[in-house]
Amino acid sequence: MTDPAVPVEELPDPLADDQQVVYDTTTTAKPFLSLRAAIREFLSAAVETVGRDPEPVVDPLAGDDAWWMRVGTQSYLAAVHLAAEGEGIVRLDVIYDFDATESVSLPGPDALPAVDKDDELTVTLVFDESRPVTPDVDAPTATADGVTFATAREQRVDPDEQPRAKTTPVGERPKAGDGDDEPNAGSDDDSPSTGQHVTVTAVGPDGDGIQVDLNPDARIGKLVATVIRETDGGVSPVELSHDERGRESVDSDTPAAEFDGERLHWRPVERLGVVSDGKWRAHGSQG
Amino acid sequence: MVNGAHTEVKDNVVHRTFEQTHKEVANKTLSFLVSYAQARGLDEQQIVEKYDKFERALLTWIPSRHLTSVKFEIYDPDEPVDGKAIERFDLQFDIRDPSDLSPEERRTVENQRFEDNIDKVMRRINDLRPLPENVRYRIIFGKCGENGRGHEPTDVPGFSATSSRSIDHLDSETFNDPLVYTGNSTVEGVLHW
Predict the structure, then answer these.
(1) Which of A19, A180, B60, B181 gives a 20 to 30 Å CA spacing to B26?
(2) To probe the interface with B, which of A73, A96, A101 has the most B CB atoms within 10 Å?
(3) pLDDT tens per residue, range B158-176
């Protein structure tokens, strides 16, 4: 069992959240194997979208049926969280309800941070500490450099009615200082880290605005992810511009704090087609 | 014929839904067994290793309506086979023939208003006093000689006949809410401790 007596630290806010995979006990025998397949598929797509090889991330999750049986049958695995260099990328929640609706859609590469090949990827398995029985399981073992697996615990609440519970990572985290119990630890060193939020208004082609609260440490890609989600834009890439005529384009990889109080204009970017690796490419972005 | 096609589609939907109730009961039963072992401080590896066999038995004897009970029996290995159990949890199955269901039970199946109260039972189990050291456990499947249609159960490899250890010396506690309820299947829980 992982040690609960560790510093409290929040997982970094993911750029893409509200992703849900359903653990359905009515449609298949061994539903934990279906859960494993769904999580591996989603993680693989996410890692590939940020430009990294997915195999070191999903391979350690491939085997060990007993591990998946323990965390699945006990409804213990609450979510899987992926971060790169301390910045949250995606969080996939597991819903243990046979009539729930699965919701998995990954923002396009423009909405996710660019991840270098040397950046540390951290996959955190979030366990639900409120379960009456908690299995004795550890995080999977990484099989390649550049990928770390960790565990965290949270008290789960009804995902349909309550905000997400606070998460307490308990596994080893890369680049987190010893005894560091401050929120947002692990974010970029050169970021303001004021703990305050900035509000950016994303103005669409029809002039309607979406207000998005962002942590100053977050990248502007978070805004893109929100726009895509809230405008029913599916996975279409979105282009941001600082000027109403679209002359000054904005890099989604820029810290949000630089746009404190600003209005950003967005427009969907036309899809140019599907390339051979199955990923959409548009507006010169590389998936 | 339009009416015939409509009836066939509806029957297919209901049939598929009954299959879902069987999977629901089997999955929840296995989940309970793993939880119970963990809650009582026992090594659940024994269940992990036999998961396929248990699942095969459940998915054979639940649809055929032969399964009557699954017992989690905890015993002292130094006691004789016909000795006393230390603790036992019985899952008692009532699996109904679809033709015997009331309209309300049928609606429960069709609308998938399934219930389970496993968490509630596990919180009670967590309150039990710790077990003595070096105890063992086994899972005993009970099935009837023939179902309501007069059919004998199909054999499932890996099972042999046995009898339960005595529980006459233990207190019994029946849980008010069923562990699992799907309209056509009810699984009740009885704790002997």
Answers:
(1) A19
(2) A73
(3) 999 999 999 999 999 999 9
Residue A214 has a pLDDT of 79
- Distance separating alpha carbons of residues A212 and A195, to the nearest angstrom: 16
Which residues, other chains included, contact A7 with Cβ-Cβ below 8 Å and sequence gap of 6+?
Answer: A179, A180, A181
Give the chain A residue nearest B39 (alpha carbons). Answer: A133
Amino acid letter, residue A132: P
Q: How many CA atoms lie within 13 A of A129 on its CB side?
A: 15
Q: Does A100 touch chain B (CB under 8 A)?
A: no
Alpha-carbon distance of A6 to B82, in angstroms, equals 49
Residues of B in contact with A98 (CB under 8 A): 20, 24, 112, 114
Q: How many CB atoms lie within 10 A of CB A141?
A: 8
**Could you report the per-residue pLDDT of B3-26, keeping only the tens digit for each?**
445 555 555 556 668 889 999 999
Q: Taking CA A144 as the corner, what is the angle to CA A138 and CA A147, rounded to the nearest 5 degrees?
A: 65
* Cβ within 8 Å of B, A 37-96: 66, 69-70, 73-74
> Chain A closest CA to B82's CA: distance in Å?
32
Any B CB within 8 A of A276 CB: no
Q: What DSSP string runs through B70-103?
A: EEEEEE-TTS-TTSBEEEEEEEEEEE--GGG--H
Number of alpha carbons in the 13 Å side-chain half-sphere of residue B191: 16
Distance CA A96, CA B187 (A): 20
Whole-angstrom Cα distance, residue B80 to residue B97?
Answer: 39
- E strands along chain A, which residues? 16-22, 77-84, 87-95, 121-128, 147-154, 167-169, 198-203, 209-214, 238-241, 263-268
- In chain A, the percentage of residues whose pLDDT exceeds 90 is 30
At B107-156, the pLDDT tens digits run 888 888 898 999 999 999 999 999 999 999 999 999 999 998 899 999 99
Whole-angstrom Cα distance, residue B138 to residue B83? 14
Please tell me the distance from the alpha carbon of residue A262 to that of residue A244, in angstroms, as a whole number.
12
Cβ contact, residue pair A73, B114, below 8 Å: no
If you average pLDDT over residues B45-67, what whole number do you get?
A: 95
Q: Which pLDDT does position A43 carry in this prediction? A: 94
Q: Which of A28, A69, A132 is facing B51, going by the closest CB pair?
A: A69
Cβ(B28)–Cβ(B122) below 8 Å: no
**A contacts of B72 (beta carbons < 8 Å):** none
